[in-house]
Design a protein that fits this description.
- The structure is a homodimer.
- The first copy, chain A, contains 2 helices and 3 strands.
- With about 80 residues, chain A is α+β, with helices and mostly antiparallel strands.
- A 3-stranded antiparallel sheet of chain A has the order 2-1-3.
- Chain A is elongated.
- Chains A and B meet through α1, β2 and α2 of A and α1, β2 and α2 of B.
């Protein structure tokens, strides 16, 4: 089973990387880019085959290691 | 219109960040994590409202700036 974890900064948390991308796009002549946020995506291959067990395990991994829940939120998507 | 760009390393390109995450999860006692790959997700708010124009523009941004197409692939998802 595969898990795709998307970790993004919470609303209201400053995102200097996103700001840098927005400035760079503007410098390259791309107009109409109003806001940019950058996050991480982590793809895990799991031995577990039960969806609900895998969901619980991956959420615990996020809380423990993958996301800093003070400033970040995470989203877990499972697929076969 | 919002665009979500996911940039991941191509298959076969070494991913030390993913390897570090896998080792850390193993050290924390998580078993059954067979492979980990880390990538980036970039969320753009665009002024453009036409889907096909936006798709073309974002793909060009990926080629120019957001992804290093020598070692990375990108995927664009658009939503209202």
């Amino acid at each position: 089973m595969k898990a795709k974890v998307t970790v993004t900064l919470k609303q209201g948390v400053l995102d200097p990387q996103g700001q840098a991308i927005q400035n760079a796009l503007s410098g390259l002549g791309y107009e109409g880019v109003e806001n940019v946020r950058q996050g991480k995506v982590i793809e895990l291959d799991l031995a577990e085959t039960d969806t609900s067990v895998a969901q619980t395990a991956v959420e615990k991994m996020c809380e423990d290691l993958l996301a800093n829940t003070v400033i970040e939120t995470y989203d877990v998507e499972l697929s076969e």
